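yo

u said u wanted the structure for the complex thing, so here. seqs first:
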Amino acid sequence: MLLDGAQAVQHGPVDVAALGADFYAFSGHKAFGPTGVGVLWGKAEALAALPPFHGGGGMIGRVGVEQTTYALPPRRFEAGTPPIAQAIGLGAALDWLCEQPWAAMNAHTARLAQRLIDGLAVLPGLTFIGPRETAQRLPIVAFDLAGIHPHDACQVLDAHGVAVRGGHHCAQPLMEFFKLQGAVRASIAPYNDEADIDALLAGLKDAIGRLR
Amino acid sequence: MNDDLYQKALLDLAKAAHGAGSLPSPDGTALRDSPLCGDRVRMQVALENGRIKAIAHEVKGCLLCRAAASLVGLHGIGLDAAQAEALRGQVATTLAGSPPPSGWPELALFEPVRPHRNRHGCVLLPFEALAAATHEAD
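structre next:
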């Protein structure tokens, strides 16, 4: 089992052993690091069972005419010249994350998430995806606005200086399950504040007024 | 500017949904998806003497895509396969800054989309579906 931790890892320590997954992956840019780099953690026996997916320097054990062997993980999966600058950048970002006061940071983002959820709840035709209680969710709030396509909502929000993700999130089966074309997803980070939440809510009211 | 993107005339065009629906016996059908944004257009055409005599479309998409499909329904009747194919290219050049092709003045409504290259595909999708459906029918 592979668990996608891209939306979770930046919100607190992850005990990969307790999760019970064979693999845990996340992308660097979702953890305040550079693009083009990420992390795959795997149980040693699960990684050892995987063949290389890419050939290149540094991933071989010994190359022979009759037989080629491969390096042990993780080198087996790191063929060729690695993205050195990106890896160093991601390391710095993760070091920074690990030094943060998680409790205070998460209390701040949970407070902002609650402000957002409370503001969204009074908008007409809004459907939440997931629970409304911040204790039961990370500060990532996805929702649908009836009659307004997520990309149009995002475009209007962009004009308000608010960047959110909109669309099917590459999860079309999930959208079909919810009977939605897509969703708008607001991800709250420690650098956000109340003014950001209020700008998002004002932008949505503008979108409703203009597009519905 | 974003403020211009959703002007009333464009909203009205999308709302009018000219040609929305399906044909009982289409000569050509094309389904086109935009993998990036998830817009989906099913375009159907019926031909007579090689020219479109009826158009119907079903759109799951944003306002820009729905307005573009409505425009196809408004002016697409009478095109042949070569013209439908050429139209697709003309819409692309209109989005790049050229004047709209003759007979399609409403394409000017999409002028504010020009700087938003990530939205060009939303406008082009119905025209691509029209070209494909007409090619299949021809």
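The mean pLDDT of chain B is 94. Chain B touches chain A through 17 residues (CB under 8 Å).
cya
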